[in-house]
Amino acid sequence: MPARLTTELPSDLPAAIRQAKARLRERIGDVAGALAEVEEAMRTEVAAVVAEREAGHELFPIAQFADIAAGRVPEATVASIRRRGCAVVKGNFPRDRAERWNERIAAYLEDNGFAQSYRGYADDVFDGLASRKPQIYGVYWSKPQMEARQDDNMVAVRSFLNSFWRHQSEGKTWFDPTRDTAYPDRIRRREPGSSSPGLSAHTDNGSIERWLLPAYQRVFRHVFSGRGRDYDAWDAAHRTEVYEFPSTVMCTAFRTFQGWTALSDMRPTDGVLHVVPIPSAMAYVLLRALQEDVADDELCGAANGQALPIGTRWHSVLLPALSPIPAVEPGDSVWWHCDVIHAVADVTAQERWGNVMYIPSSPYCEKNARYAIACGEAFLTGASPSDFAPEDYEVDWVGRGTLDDLNPVGRKQLGLEAW
């Protein structure tokens, strides 16, 4: 299988941005009119979100794992997940199992002296975190993380979430919703009493690429043809053809949903995830950067090597909808569509632990299979996966997961065994 994982960055990036914007503006024609149409729809959605939140209604759809396993998720819940682009799965794992995982991860870190070997953040993704102690840990291969990724419960939840996407169109099958690949990610451990300025609103999975890459232009073909209202955020067409520019924040895989699994109780006031629960908001973000008040070589703050920022200067229409997740407990999982705008709220003197394992949904396709093979090679040596800074803490750690800890699904997820 070819080793292609990224796309070459243009040597003259400002010129590439100017050229891309000129082509897109010409294709759209009435750029201001296209934005006005989408903005009207966004204002309606934002107002609905704000009204529900102020009325005390829960904005995050909540699905019970038992219902997912039995194939009987209520239609109203399914419709809400589709509209909001996010979900909490209650009881994804039993509470006591998640609590044991939390204890085992703590012991794994302690046994290997992570606090003493910590070298500071190796990339600038989390520069906003001012705590003297790490909160995002560059740890990928603990046995609890591996157990959770390959567990039948997690496979069932990810298959359910993948089903929201239209994975076949234009005569092609873009991904297989029933098969998993691994996207090994980090853990977060925020201890009681800690404070953090959080992370401002942003989206992942590409920044300048969304305007510059032909594959992304095909993904957003309706938006870039002046038909933003026809854009379907759940259409996977061409998303598996996107290969981002090299950086420490790129995502080599196509993730239908980003997600994490709770290892401790968390409340909405605990500096938790907030989202703008409008998956189609990306249409507004894309068109906003093409307006006349934005410099020809600018994309509303987007820059290679950074998450795509969503701020008050350019995107104030969307930000009133930014809303927190509901209370979660150990074993619950939290999910959001790969294009959904999200943030992490500030917290001061947090009352309780805030611990999670980041585990997204990355279904099987050629693009994801390539990255899974690279992750399998990293796993065998204990190295950090290639989408992340090469901190490589676990290379010499004791108690790291090994091949013997992988079941058949786990081996396939890492490209160590054929599906």
Identify the CATH homologous superfamily. Answer: B-lactam Antibiotic, Isopenicillin N Synthase, Chain
Assign the CATH architecture: Sandwich
* CATH overall fold name: Jelly Rolls
Largest sheet at a glance? 7 strands, mixed
Mean pLDDT: 93
Percent in helix: 25-40%
Uncertain stretches: 123-132
Number of strands: 16
Taken as a percent bin, the fraction of beta residues is 5-15%
Strand arrangement across the biggest beta sheet: 1-2-13-9-15-7-3
Order of helices and strands: HHEHHEHHEHHEEEEEHHEEHEHEEEEEHH
Question: End-to-end span in angstroms?
Answer: 14 Å
The number of distinct helices, counting runs of at least 4 residues, comes to 14
Number of domains: 1
Question: What structural class should be given to the helix and strand makeup?
Answer: alpha+beta
Overall CATH class: Mainly Beta
Radius of gyration: 21 Å
Based on Cα principal axes, name the global outline. Answer: globular
